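Figure 2 data, in text form.
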Amino acid sequence: MKFKKIFSVLLVFLVFFSINSPSVLSAQTIKISKNEEVNSEWIKLGDIAKLTDFSSDLKEELISVKLEKAARPGYERNISKQLIRLVLKDKGYDITNFVFDIPDRIKVKTLSKKLDNNKLETFIKEHIQKNIDYEYDQIEIEITSSLSEIIIPDADYSFEISRKKSNYRGSYSLPVDIIVNKTAYKRIYVNLKTNIYKKVFVAKKNLFKGKKISKDNFEFKTASITDVDSTIISNWDNSLIKDGLLTKTISKGEILTEEYLKKPIVINWGDQIQAEIKIGGITVNTMVKAKERGKKGDFILVENLKTGKQFKAEVINRRLVRLVRN
């Protein structure tokens, strides 16, 4: 009887000593409660667990270990203690050194919030205004698709345009990535319509092919240039206007662009014309023969009728070309 009593006292002492020994108190412990929350696409160990008595390097590694995909925002996913042990073991950790203070089943909820559609609209419009490469006086950007309610993890987010366009005019679709925790979480396609306005020359009446135009035929006013593909003439002091003729009819209300005008050929191959050659302060006139066709302002090849020498000269009019050398 006395022996049993001594044995019991010794057993209690051993248990008390083992519980309070430094080796147990400093055990590498992973502690997780029955209900946890995350706000990212993946459930990482560091998001749901408290890690104690690990070295800083090992703790840093364990924090980033991915256990399983998180549930959709606002929903829950159950993971097991056994899964956590298997994942850590599969990644090469000696789990015999770890104390798992974990329930058998853990409910992990993904926190959620609504994406701010006003923030999305502002981002898109600023992107278009920054990247559109047309000169304009006014711009209208309309989002034509209905922006649905988008639920994302409750974390900081931003937007990125996944594919930039070369033309932001008219109707088009823009792919936008929603970035959550520095990772592309979701891609959406936003339908838009961009109208661009600029002061331009608009025909007051029908003007017909082959005719010269005058400023009186046009009204300088703000109009939509959204569907205009040719270069717009917005300055009347333009050589095409001075020397050109209409290549096709321009209807009332249409915008004046370079596609409507063309300089006529004033010198043809074989024409004999005068050449004015300026070298320094000396001017020499001679007769030449055109070896090419040319419009006013073109440089064409001509041949000196006396010497047979060929050179390039600028077409001044149908009777004169000019060569200037310093």
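Caption note: The chain has four domains: 2-110, 114-134+142-191, 197-262, 265-325.
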